[in-house]
Design a protein that fits this description.
Helices cover 71% and strands 4% of the residues. With 283 residues, it is mainly α.
């Protein structure tokens, strides 16, 4: 890079840093309708800021869940009607993205449950897509008005403990359905042995998303930190949590599903043992 370009780049960077510092010093502190303690508490419990939804006071995360679900359903409908019929043997960019995304979950299910993976692939694809899209939704910063007249940013759907509980138990019951389909009543017993699985799934998902959300809330609350830094912190935590949590939950679901849905045919095992014994006697 020429020296002139380097010098101009450094000057521009110094000017931007100077503007941020001047803004921190000169701008008055905005009025807060909540203390930092109340802000952090409400981010976890969602017991202060409510949104009016057809006469009901609901958590903002419920509105986020409806929006994310609607977006995913409409997107899937458009892809099925307009995109898939035009797919070619040599894929374009959009087709390659779709096939890679679907193929990842298909291969994950087939690897962990080779004996029964078709329904598993569909479920973990849906769960992983919802977790990823729901977490990334927070980056758009959509605003809503609370019942008290304050503006609030809609959070990720799974940042609410209720949403995380639903996802954890839904995955647990899906695992149980695989055990029932393959082994009947024994499949239920095998699944119930992992009684802590839905709890661990719930709090792993909720804790990871909530930690990122609380960090971002803390950075945004103080004006001395709210110039430039929230962009880095928000994007970093959100993208990493979206990818990691989508992978972790789908990986655990596929692993336990494969374990409880594996068929143990004792009759074939006995026949094989007898055949081996006969061979050993003849030898």
């Amino acid at each position: 890079m020429p020296k002139k370009k380097k010098t101009s780049t450094i000057i521009i960077a110094l000017i931007l840093i100077g503007i941020c510092i001047a803004g921190i010093i000169m701008l008055p502190l905005p009025e807060k309708h909540e203390t930092i303690k109340e802000t952090m508490k409400d981010a976890v419990l969602h017991d202060i800021n409510k949104i009016d939804f057809f006469g009901f006071q609901v958590d903002p995360s419920l509105i986020s869940a409806y929006i994310v679900t609607g977006i995913l359903l409409v997107f899937a409908l458009f892809v099925r009607i307009f995109a898939i019929p035009r797919f070619k043997d040599i894929p374009g960019k959009f087709q390659l993205i779709i096939e890679t995304w679907v193929g990842f979950f298909h291969d994950l299910g087939k690897t962990n449950s080779p004996h029964r993976y078709k329904a598993l692939g569909g479920y973990i694809f849906g769960a992983g897509s919802y977790i990823f899209a729901g977490t990334m939704f927070e980056l758009f910063g959509l605003q809503a008005i609370t019942t008290e007249g304050h503006s609030i940013t809609l959070p990720a759907p799974l940042a609410n403990i209720n949403g995380a509980i639903c996802m954890g138990f839904l995955s647990f019951f899906f695992i149980m359905s695989g055990g029932i389909a393959a082994n009947g009543g024994k499949g239920i017993l095998k699944t119930l042995k992992e009684f802590s699985l839905p709890i661990s799934m719930t709090f792993r998902l909720f804790g990871a998303l909530m930690s990122g959300m609380l960090t971002t809330e803390l950075v945004y609350y103080y004006i001395t930190l709210s110039f430039g830094l929230p962009v880095v912190v928000g994007v970093l935590f959100t993208v990493l949590h979206a990818l990691i949590q989508a992978y972790v939950l789908t990986m655990l679901t596929s692993f336990y599903y494969g374990e409880v849905s594996e068929v143990h045919n004792t009759a074939n095992k006995n026949e094989n043992n007898k055949a081996e014994e006969v061979k050993n006697e003849e030898a």
